[in-house]
Design goal:
Layout (H helix, E strand, L loop, with lengths): L2 E9 L9 E3 L2 H11 L2 H6 E9 L3 H7 L3 E7 L5 H14 L4 E5 L8 H5 L5 E3 L4 H12 L10 E4 L5 E3 L29 E6 L2 E2 L21 E2 L2 H13 L4 E9 L5 H15 L4 E6 L4 H13 L15 H6 L7 H13 L6 E5 L6 H13 L6 E5 L11 H6 L3 E6 L16 E7 L5 H19 L4 H11 L3 H14 L4 H19 L17 H11 L1 H11 L7 H13 L8 E3 L2 E3 L1 H9 L8 E10 L6 H10 L14 E7 L2
Length: 650
């Protein structure tokens, strides 16, 4: 009788209803495909099923049929869930072997000391070690021959085998081998496919765990290109809409151009996949530009980033990252925007030597260099196996963390008492204490919602050009005003999100925002602020009218500016918008956008806007405009996403 094997890569279920989606458990699939290509393993073991989202622990245990071994792929977002599930399985089936691997497993035996219900740890890449482990469990049980594992010997002594790096990726494909076919039987979930064309990263960023174990593991290793082509065709055959390429630096290899051409060709022939998303390489500007524009022209580009992580030279030096010059960034932004692509930028909050001032000033630098659409701020995590996770690094830079419940955004709130995972989020360093961390995070959320998402963008641009008020100063002024006026809707929104950040620091609560008005999913703080602003838009702009008094604008200009701003924000249920102005703000802002400033002209006009994407209910609006659309400017009307015409009074 075959021995039953179960593999766990528990992720999130994203969105809800007909849009509910989940990632295919690619990591454990690749391990299984390699193992079950072996005849001995096929004759000895049966791959019973995958657990690919956080099912109730009791339900998972109940579903098991005489499990011989259960393997877990561990990440920050599922580590606590995995440990609780493994404990429950071991309690119900004491003879079942429990194997833990994945990025959350470090190179020590500490986890075996802490968790007596875990039998084996695997570190690094798991294909070879998992296959060898299954063979030894079926054969002589000579575990000393299995690379990259830790275990207890018969006397209970902890043993750690030497690390051995895998030098090639010529493994069987989990897609082409049929490993995942069972997932598509009577399953209403819309799967997201993951592929990798290479592994490794040549960079040594301190916050990243890619550069771990030893330098050899980080050398680029290629997946055979024919396998990549056939996997793309499999994805199309399964009618999977979204393909995520998991490469750390897609485009770093010349052959990646062929992969882009192939995925576009398959899309034209079959209609799938609809989206090909990846993290592009940081260099090779011209070749990357060609690939990005090809995907954009084919309608397959979801997003594209030009990242910095920090604009502080001191920070960049410490984290061993090399940034492009702002001048280069500005030229690239212009180049992409000329072909209709709006790259976004990434920053990280909580890096060593970052201050509130340097973090804030980075936004102003990005805006002045041409970033007008989207800056994504990641919180700095201390990742297992990263250089930042070493005691020496943390002590040197005064790094302190909070263990935050892992709750991936845009997924259903975790109302279960069962654990998921915890992320070590940096909340204090030698140069930024907890108070300044809150101040920085609030600033980040507000500049994203008010400027980049557009709630107060035009007002900020006007004040910058006419009153020399920096965009960052304007956001600081607005935050301060909101905090001082708790009776206003602006004040209530401020208090709501300040409390989220404060409770996170003091009570280890989640940082995500939830309001059932916007669907049964969670939101980033800036998305929550924007949604609450739009939900209370009339009250909000009554407050803004009072807030603007401190800038001493002429009354007629202030009234027109407010009218223009409020009507340029995308809100539910508005398909056709028409309003009257005394000043020609459309020409004024268009000239500024083209870097050709001209004075505001007093001229009566009537802007008319036809919204290409109008949604009548808040749930659809939040999902399509705020979640899916914020990176490409759908939260704010422009000629790229709507029909705008101006009728002037003669």
């Amino acid at each position: 009788m075959l021995k039953n094997i179960y593999l766990i890569q528990a992720g999130e279920l994203f969105s809800e209803g007909e849009y509910k989606s989940a990632y295919i458990p690619y990591a454990v699939g690749t391990i299984a495909a390699h193992a079950w290509a072996d005849e001995t393993i096929r004759k000895a073991y049966f791959l019973s099923r995958f657990v690919f989202y956080r099912e109730k622990i009791a339900d998972v245990v109940k579903s098991l049929d005489k499990p011989f071994l259960v393997g877990f792929s561990n990440y920050v977002w599922n580590f606590s869930y995995n440990k609780a599930l493994a404990y429950a399985i071991k309690s119900a089936y004491p003879k079942c072997f429990i194997v833990f691997g994945g990025p959350q497993i470090d190179s020590s035996t500490k986890l075996l000391q802490e968790c007596d219900y875990i039998d084996f740890l695997t570190t690094g890449e798991g294909e070879a070690s998992f296959k060898a482990l299954l063979l030894e469990l079926h054969g002589t049980k000579n575990f000393a021959s299995v690379p990259n594992i830790s275990y207890r010997n018969d006397e209970g002594t902890l043993i750690q085998n030497p690390f051995k790096s895998e030098n090639n990726l010529d493994f069987p494909s989990p897609y082409l081998s049929g490993i995942f076919d069972s997932l598509f039987i009577e399953n209403s979930i819309k799967f997201i496919a993951i592929i990798e064309t290479n592994r490794g990263c040549p960079y040594k960023c301190a916050y990243c765990s890619c550069y771990s174990m030893n330098e050899k593991e980080c050398a680029l290793k290629m997946v055979p290109i024919q396998r990549v082509f056939e996997e793309i065709e499999w994805i199309a055959h399964k009618k999977i809409e979204y393909c995520l390429c998991a490469d750390s630096n897609f485009g770093i290899c010349n052959r990646d151009k062929q992969i882009v051409d192939h995925v576009i060709d398959i899309n034209r022939k079959t209609g799938y996949p609809l989206i090909f998303n990846t993290a592009f390489a940081k260099e090779k500007d011209e070749s990357i530009f060609k690939m990005v524009t090809k995907l954009h022209d084919a309608g397959m580009l979801k997003e594209f980033t030009l990242s910095f992580q920090s604009l502080s030279s001191d920070v960049i030096k410490i984290i061993k990252r090399k940034n492009m010059k702002l001048e280069t960034f500005s030229k690239l932004m212009k180049k992409y925007q000329e072909v209709g692509i709006h790259p976004y930028t990434e920053l990280i909050l909580g890096l060593p030597n970052e201050t509130y001032e340097s973090f804030r000033d980075g936004f102003q630098s990005l805006i002045e260099a041409g970033q007008k659409y989207y800056v994504h701020v990641w919180l700095c995590f201390v990742l297992v196996n990263s250089p930042m996770a070493t005691e020496e690094f943390m002590v040197k830079y005064g790094i302190k963390t909070v263990d935050s419940p892992s709750n991936l955004y845009h997924s259903k709130p975790n109302s279960s008492s069962e654990p998921s995972g915890y992320s070590q989020i940096v909340t204090s360093t030698n140069t930024m204490n907890e108070d300044f961390w809150i101040k920085s995070y609030l600033f980040s959320a507000y500049i994203q919602s008010m400027f980049f998402m557009g709630a107060l963008r035009q007002i900020s641009i006007y004040l910058f050009h006419e009153k020399q008020i920096l965009h960052t100063r304007f956001i600081e002024d607005f935050i301060s005003w909101s905090a001082k006026h708790p009776e206003t809707i602006c004040g209530k929104i401020y208090e709501t999100f300040y409390k989220i950040f404060f409770d996170f620091l003091k009570n280890n609560t989640t940082l995500s925002y939830f309001n059932p008005n916007f669907g049964d999913i969670t939101w980033y703080a800036e998305e929550g602020i924007f949604l609450e602003t739009v939900y209370h838009i009339e009250e909000f702009f009554c407050d803004i009218e009072l807030f603007l008094l401190s800038y001493n604008l002429p009354k007629d200009i202030a009234e027109d500016l407010l009218r223009y701003q409020i009507n340029m924000i995308n809100t539910p249920g508005r398909t056709h918008i028409k309003f009257n102005l005394n000043y020609d703000f459309d020409s004024y802002f268009s000239a500024i956008s083209d870097n050709k400033y001209k004075q505001l002209c007093k001229r009566k006009n009537t802007p008319s806007i036809t919204n290409f994407r109008s949604y009548d209910n808040w749930s659809d609006f939040a999902r399509e405009i705020v979640w899916f659309g914020r990176k490409i400017g759908r939260t704010f009307f422009s000629r790229a996403n709507s029909d705008i015409s101006i009728k002037y009074e003669v």
